């Protein structure tokens, strides 16, 4: 039986995980898209019914 070997791939040495890196890239884009989105009229969506 062979001894268990750890995978060759290691964590990045800079301490930034892939998840953190992805969030840092996507968060500003999502916020910018929300800020630049055209505003809907007050009665167009979610208005009072009745």
From TrEMBL:
Superkingdom to which the source organism belongs: Bacteria
Listed name of the protein: Uncharacterized protein
């Amino acid at each position: 039986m062979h001894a268990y070997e750890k995978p060759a791939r290691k964590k990045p040495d800079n301490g930034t995980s892939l998840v953190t890196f992805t969030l840092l890239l996507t968060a500003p884009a999502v916020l910018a898209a929300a800020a630049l989105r055209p505003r809907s009229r007050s009665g167009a969506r979610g208005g009072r019914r009745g």
